[in-house]
Amino acid sequence: MTTETVFALCSAALYAAAAFLLFVLPVLYGWVSGSAKSGCIAAAGVAAAAAFVARTVEVLWGFGQRAPEADQRSARSR
After folding, report:
1. pTM metric for this prediction
2. Mean of pLDDT values over 54-72
């Protein structure tokens, strides 16, 4: 695994945890109950998955865009 992949996965996990916590906080504080409780938990799972995928793609796409520039600079210095 490359450093970029590890960074993407670790930062994506943190984003997913934050998104999950954001949607689960009302359940933890007891502000919702019944079917709203299960809805909040389901929304938390969806938000966490979306945040994980979005952050992973964002980071890896950014590293992918910078790679050709680095190759061009090293080719010029030869």
Report:
1. 0.77
2. 79
